[in-house]
Amino acid sequence: MTRYSIQRLAESVIVLIVMSFLIYAIMALMPGDPIDIMVQSDPNLTSADAARLKALYGLDQPLSERYANWFLSAVRGDFGYSRIHNRPALEILVPRLANTTWLMAASLVLSLILALPIGVYSALHPYSRTDYLINFMALGGISVPVFWLALMLIIVFSVWLGWFPAGGMHTVGDNSLIDSARHMVLPVITLSIASIGSLTRYVRAAMMEVMRHDYIRTARAKGLSTKTIVFKHALRNAMIPVVTVLALSFGSLFSGALITETMFSYLGMGKLIYDSIIGNDYNMALVSLLFATALVLVSNLAADLAYAWLDPRISYR
After folding, report:
1. What's the total number of domains in the chain?
2. CA proximity to 87, closest of 95, 257, 27, 41
3. What is the pTM of this model?
4. Which of 31-45, 68-82, 115-129 has the largest mean confidence?
């Protein structure tokens, strides 16, 4: 297991390096650069001043040389400065990353708490009225656009009922945990609804497949209770494909967080990436996207390690 983990970490580092170059190249293809924006905003700057500033910051060099300089600085822990915030990129990124982690963790936990029992119940009562209702609601949750759902929740629970704030992280002058939790309610619900629908469908399909296996029939023939069969034998094996889906959906959950954070003005990585791209803060956008890629790689590694815990037959030796 240790050797496998080290090998996967090395592969993840290689993928991260390749993705860093691709993201850097994509950002370089965007029209304009910070110097051009500076010249446009200050009529006193001439074209000669722009050329001098580009030479000073290395923006007149080829793409490969600029990337090499950035990469060497990043290896030393220097990810550059944010043009919008006028601070080191990491000082802006770390708090935003923590906010997004809390948001995604809360939505994922809520999704699992609801999807697992609902999916198991649906699998144990296939093609019943309750099963059809669960499938209908799950497909509805999958189909609803995230931005529309966020708007509807704001209108109903913030504008009409006034139960929760419409956006932001906390009320001005109130930094209590309860106030922060109230601001997280609507974003968490928005992210959870689509996840609950898809997870419920996957849990149902996996449980129905496992319940057809011979060892389940053997357990029934031995007189084991339904509760023991479901939770001790079936559910653990059914979770293997569900864990795979969770790891693969981590990236889509993060993209959903980008939309959700923008709709609710939640100061997370998603809104940071959006604001950086809109504000032509290329360095901040580059670092944020790179860390988002690292999160997806870590989630895939965690899923592979979880397989061995769920099924002792799986070995990485």
Report:
1. 1
2. 95
3. 0.78
4. 115-129
